[in-house]
Structure formats: structure tokens, C-alpha cells
């Protein structure tokens, strides 16, 4: 017998992404999750919505967190300094655990204009020195679950009875929900997960207060900070064809210092990361 679900999710805050026209090669950029509000998004740090040409994100280092890069359009070439190389296309995702010392490049292929959403996911203190790793999640390997008026893709976590292929070091969910016409879907999330969503197309009404959001609308959701992994419900009503991404994770509740390409617990650890990089401890360039 299933436990009765008694926690109904609602919208905690909502806004629309504001974009900067940066010019060539980083053509346009907007903050889905603004980094100055990272405490509100725990365990997430930021999310960037980027359009860019080749030469924007060449060889660079990271330490202390994970990235989840969702390709919306174009071809994304990944190169790292351990010999890794891959090309991702629309609907694909790359998960990276920067861990102790990542050094990689994320570039548009040839003359493509690439469009991505990149989420920074924090690592708890005891995992910040873990081994760097990369995982490509190709769209054809992502479970698709139909429901009345639409379907969902489960990239990470256990949703609707299936488990997504992403092997995150911390428990998160990532789901793309698509409506092919107006309809209602109830999304199930652990009640203790901090969660947010971004609308990619159409118009939807979210939660018990039925907040309306259109394309580029973002919402953070209510959750039980002292709750368990018991299920909670988020009601999503689409007023027409619509698509949105929903992410959730358990807050770490640790001190966070994010500076440049590093996310640590103290400023001294940030300074040490810069020293280690300049001393060559991150290894050779990615090329």
C-alpha cells in the first residue's frame, strides 16, 4: 500500500531570464539561476543559458562541484586533458564531476551556433577531492514515459517508476516534461528536495497557486527542509503545447564560496585551487 501524499508543492519564487547580448563568440547569455542567489538554490549554484560560437569555452579548469550541460541546439564538442573527446547534439546531456582537478574545453563544432543550459551542482565537502569524471547521456538512452497529453524524459533520479541514466555523486532528479496539447500532469518529487524549473516553450500553470509561466520563465518550489524522501506532488497544467525542465536535489547546508571556475567551502580553499592550477597540478591543457 502506497503512503498517502500529503505535501503539495507550490511556487516559492518566479522570474524570467534576462539576457545579455555579448557579441562574438559568446553571442548571448542569461542567468536561469543567478549566482548571487546560490544560497536559495542549494545544492545548485547557478544555471547559465548560453548561445556561443567556437572559442568561447576553450581550455579551462574546475574544482569542487559538478556540471550538468543540456544541449538545446547545435553540436557541443567536449575535450578534456585525459584524452576524452565526444560530440553531443540536441537533447544530449553531459555530466561532469570536476572533483579535485578538471581541465576541459566545451566548444561549438565547426561554425555551429551552440545553445546550452549549464547547471552547476555543488559537491559536499567530503567529495570535493574526488576523481574527475565525465558521463555522456545521449537522448536515445533516456527513458521516455508517456502520460495523457504528453510524455517525460527521465535523465536523472527515480521518476514515474524508472531511473534515469545519470550517475550523479549526489542524489538529484532531472526531468524534461513535454505536453503535445493542453493538459495536466502531476510530477512526483521527494519532499526534501529543493527544486526549480524552467519553461522552454508554451504556457503552464504551476503548483497550488497556479502561477502562469511562459518561455524562459523560472520558478523555485516549496519543499520540506526537515522532510524525508517521501513523495510530494507538483501539479503542472499546460494551456497549450509546452515543454519544461524540472531539477531537484537535497540541500547540502554547507558554507559555499564560488569564485571564478572553483566552488569550495572557504576562500582559502579557493586561493589554494588557483595556486594548484598555476603550479601545474591540474595537468596539461585540454586540446
UniProtKB/TrEMBL annotation:
<dbReference type="InterPro" id="IPR008778">
    <property type="entry name" value="Pirin_C_dom"/>
</dbReference>
<dbReference type="InterPro" id="IPR003829">
    <property type="entry name" value="Pirin_N_dom"/>
</dbReference>
<keyword id="KW-0479">Metal-binding</keyword>
<dbReference type="InterPro" id="IPR011051">
    <property type="entry name" value="RmlC_Cupin_sf"/>
</dbReference>
<dbReference type="GO" id="GO:0046872">
    <property type="term" value="F:metal ion binding"/>
</dbReference>
<feature type="binding site">
    <location>
        <position position="62"/>
    </location>
    <ligand>
        <name>Fe cation</name>
    </ligand>
</feature>
<comment type="similarity">
    <text>Belongs to the pirin family.</text>
</comment>
<dbReference type="InterPro" id="IPR014710">
    <property type="entry name" value="RmlC-like_jellyroll"/>
</dbReference>
<dbReference type="Pfam" id="PF05726">
    <property type="entry name" value="Pirin_C"/>
</dbReference>
<dbReference type="InterPro" id="IPR012093">
    <property type="entry name" value="Pirin"/>
</dbReference>
<feature type="binding site">
    <location>
        <position position="104"/>
    </location>
    <ligand>
        <name>Fe cation</name>
    </ligand>
</feature>
<feature type="binding site">
    <location>
        <position position="60"/>
    </location>
    <ligand>
        <name>Fe cation</name>
    </ligand>
</feature>
<dbReference type="Pfam" id="PF02678">
    <property type="entry name" value="Pirin"/>
</dbReference>
<protein>
    <submittedName>
        <fullName>Pirin family protein</fullName>
    </submittedName>
</protein>
<feature type="domain" description="Pirin N-terminal">
    <location>
        <begin position="52"/>
        <end position="121"/>
    </location>
</feature>
<feature type="domain" description="Pirin C-terminal">
    <location>
        <begin position="181"/>
        <end position="283"/>
    </location>
</feature>
<keyword id="KW-0408">Iron</keyword>
<feature type="binding site">
    <location>
        <position position="106"/>
    </location>
    <ligand>
        <name>Fe cation</name>
    </ligand>
</feature>
